[in-house]
Amino acid sequence: MNKSKGIRTETLFKIFIYVTLAALAISILIPVAWVFLASIKENKEFYSNPWAFPEGFYFQNFIEAFRDAHMGDYLLNSVMVTALSLFFLLIVALPAAYVLSRFKFMGSRFLNSFVKAGLFINVSYIAVPIFLMLLGWDSGLKELIGDGFFLNNRVILALIYASTALPFTIFLLSSYFETLPSDFEEAASIDGAGHFRTMFSVMLPMAAPSIIIVILFNFLLFWNEYILALTLMPGDNKTLPVGLLNLLAAERAAVNYGPMYAGMVIVMLPTLILYMIVQKRLTQGMTVGGVKG
User: Fold this and answer.
1) How far from 240 is each of 123, 143, 234, 281, CA to CA, in Å?
2) Which end of the chain is more exposed for a tag (fewer CB within 10 A), N or C?
């Protein structure tokens, strides 16, 4: 009797989980599908029946978004800033995480605590101090050479993105490195490999699932970041989120909805493509990291 009741309870629990997940999936998929369908509609279709399927493929919306709203330039800026940010981040975070997780030395505990403390710093709170600091540096440069360098610079923005993401990235990678067995390092040491060679040839390939998670999470963070990009890029080098907000304001005022939704698709599409490419490795990384070697 108790066994039958337990089976029934387990079945009801599974049904509840499946229904909840299905409802969550639907609540996410419907808005995304709506944006994609709306991006290929003519403007008159929004007035007749906005919930109807598009009558055809109106590609002119994307042309207007790229031509009139300069979304192509913003897309290029976002690609450059995101790629540089990931490059700077991985160059610093990978060796730092490996050293902090695999070696004990004077000050290592303080450094680990210092990195963890950085997890509690919200970028929104330091955007203005960063802007004032760079503005001061630019003012000094203009007095010396007559031109600024630090504001409206994609490389500087990428360096700031990478530095703000360092605490989370080092913490995540360190946690993964700690789960790896030391047998491989000992074998590499017996073969004559130094610490540098061991890290690049042995440990980093083993940590590939965790590195992929770091790349995906930080890609989403850098790609969708708005506050720093708006504050530090006052000129023409705007990124996609800032350009999209400008596009939304302009098209909403002009009551022209097609290009507005086309701009949303331009922002969303790279993240969806990246997720589909790394989906399998992402799942592996999220499960393997919890197993102690």
Assistant:
1) 19, 32, 14, 27
2) N
Domain 60-288 fold: MetI-like fold (1.10.3720)
Q: What is the rounded distance in angstroms from the CA atom of residue 176 to the CA atom of residue 206?
A: 10
Cα 227 off chain centre by:
14
Domain spans of the chain?
A: 60-288
Roughly what angle, to the nearest 10 degrees, separates helices 60-67 and 257-288?
90
Residues 6+ away with beta carbon under 8 Å from 27: none
- In this structure, the chain runs to a length of 293
How much is the pLDDT for 82? Answer: 95
Q: What is the pTM of this model?
A: 0.83
Q: Determine the pLDDT at residue 282.
A: 65
Whole-angstrom CA distances from 80 to 201, 231, 293 are 28, 18, 38
User: Which are the contacts of 287, defined by CB distance < 8 A and separation ≥ 6?
Assistant: none
Summarize pLDDT for 84-120 with one digit per residue, the tens: 999 999 999 999 999 998 888 888 888 888 888 888 8
Please tell me the predicted confidence (pLDDT) of residue 44. Answer: 82
Both structure tokens of 259? 């290009």
How far, in Å, CA of 223 to CA of 78, rounded?
6
Angle at 128 between CA 240 and CA 234, to 5 degrees: 40
For tokens 């290029």, the residue is 76
The list of the chain residues with pLDDT below 70 reads 1-7, 251-255, 280-293
Nearest to 218 by CA among 97, 75, 85: 85
Task: State the greatest distance between any 2 C-alpha atoms of the chain, in Å, as a whole number.
Answer: 87
Query: What's residue 163's pLDDT?
Result: 94
